[in-house]
Amino acid sequence: MKILICVPCMDQVAAQFAQSLAMLRKDEEETSVMFEISSLIYNARNHMAEQSVKMDFDATLWIDSDMVFDPMLLSDLLKTRRETGAEIVTAVCYRRRPPYTPTIFKKLDIHEDTQTADFEEYGINELPKEPFEIEGCGMAATLVDTSVYLDVLSKYGSCFSPIGKNGEDAAFCWRARECGNKIVADPRIRIGHVGQMIVYKEMCKAYAESKKNGGV
């Protein structure tokens, strides 16, 4: 496959991210890396999605510039794509600030007329152990078939432009699903979110247990 690795960012990236990207294994895949510097992330995402179509890539691997990940990230996402047949496959990212919740949605329904949304997030203890279908996610570490952009651009004219107060990631996932595409999350793929500390699943679980027991 021909894959474009897309990194939307501001003027700097985390050093831990740079190290992870340098160690990323590509195996048999033909890959290119594109950085898009913009103060409006949705503009960067829209441009890179359109470029992936113009340059005839088969898929894009979105990686946010504040993520750390194992060298096998791309290989693992491709394997899950083959196993599930999903057009969009994501690792599970956790917010870098309390309560460190997963950035995936079991329900995500955006109403274009009112620009409002009905959504429901997953709790840390609700996550299955195997890949499972979801309705939305952040693009933290997400593999997207280029065919999805063709679907969305044909129907909506834009991939990542926000809808009301709903961010670009949620808007894209909703549009993609409205076009008949499937989104799958794989909780087996380990990624970390760089904040004051690197947030992995274990931090999220520890925080949830502390709150349950009356801690801060």
Task: Describe the 3D structure.
This protein has 216 residues and is an alpha+beta fold. It has one domain (2-212): Spore Coat Polysaccharide Biosynthesis Protein SpsA, Chain A. The chain has six helices and 13 strands. The chain has helices at 15-23, 41-54, 73-84, 146-156, 168-178, 201-212; strands spanning 2-9, 30-37, 59-63, 67-69, 88-91, 104-111, 116-121, 132-134, 136-137, 141-145, 183-186, 191-194, 198-199. β12 (191-194) and β13 (198-199) form a beta hairpin. It is globular and about 55 Å long. The termini are far apart. 40% of the residues are buried.
Secondary structure elements and pairings:
Layout: E1 2-9, H1 15-23, E2 30-37, H2 41-54, E3 59-63, E4 67-69, H3 73-84, E5 88-91, E6 104-111, E7 116-121, E8 132-134, E9 136-137, E10 141-145, H4 146-156, H5 168-178, E11 183-186, E12 191-194, E13 198-199, H6 201-212
Parallel strand pairs: 1-2, 1-3, 5-11
Antiparallel strand pairs: 3-10, 4-12, 5-10, 6-7, 6-9, 8-11, 12-13
Helix pairs in contact: 2-4
Tell me the count of domains.
Answer: 1
Total of DSSP H or I helical runs spanning 4+ residues = 6
**Gyration radius, in Å:** 17 Å
Kindly name the structural category. alpha+beta
Q: State the CATH architecture.
A: Alpha-Beta Complex
Major β-sheet annotation: 7 strands, mixed
The fraction of residues assigned to DSSP E strands is 25-35%
The average pLDDT score comes to: 95
Low-confidence stretches: none
CATH class: Alpha Beta
CATH fold name, please?
Spore Coat Polysaccharide Biosynthesis Protein SpsA, Chain A
Order of helices and strands: EHEHEEHEEEEEEHHEEEH
Question: Could you give the distance between the termini?
Answer: 47 Å
- Please state the overall shape, judged from the principal axes of the Cα atoms: globular
Find the count of extended strands (DSSP E, 2+ residues). 13
Helicity, in percent?
25-40%
> Which strand order do you get reading across the main beta sheet?
2-1-3-10-5-11-8
